[in-house]
Amino acid sequence: MRLVHHPNVIQLKKVMATKTKIFLVMECVRGGELFAKVAKERLKEDLARKYFQQLINIVNYCHSHDVSHHD
């Protein structure tokens, strides 16, 4: 995550670990998770198009910078 610098990706600030847990300190972003918005109700077409465009932009960015992604 530290390799990806894109406006549509939350920045990883720090990684900390104990013997049993790993903690990721990430940029604070308002608005909640996209999944929660989609699961709650159907998005209007213009908003869905905006989110989809952001998603394909970041996937393209990752692929062009040899960065693997999970979701």
What does this structure look like?
It is a single chain. With 71 residues, this protein is of the alpha+beta class. It has one domain (12-64). It has helices at 34-40, 45-64; strands at 12-17, 22-26. A two-stranded antiparallel ribbon has the order 1-2. It is globular. The mean pLDDT is 89.
Write the layout of secondary structure elements.
Elements: E1 12-17, E2 22-26, H1 34-40, H2 45-64
Antiparallel strand pairs: 1-2
Organism: Cynara cardunculus var. scolymus (Globe artichoke)
Pfam family, one: Pkinase
InterPro entries: Kinase-like_dom_sf, Prot_kinase_dom
Can you summarize this structure?
The protein is an alpha+beta fold and 71 residues long.
- The number of helical elements comes to 2
Q: On the 0-100 scale, what is the average pLDDT?
A: 89
Structural class: alpha+beta
Per DSSP E runs of 2 or more residues, the count of β-strands stands at 2
Low-confidence stretches: none
Which overall shape is indicated by the principal axes computed on the Cα atoms? globular
Rg from alpha-carbon coordinates = 15 Å
Q: Helical residue percent?
A: 25-40%
SSE string, helices as H and strands as E: EEHH
How many structurally independent domains? Answer: 1
Q: What about the largest sheet?
A: 2 strands, antiparallel
Strand content bin: 15-25%
Strand order of the largest sheet: 1-2
Compute the separation of the termini in Å.
Answer: 12 Å
Organism: Cynara cardunculus var. scolymus
Keywords: ATP-binding, Kinase, Nucleotide-binding, Serine/threonine-protein kinase, Transferase
GO molecular function, one term: protein serine/threonine kinase activity
Protein name: Calcium/calmodulin-dependent/calcium-dependent protein kinase
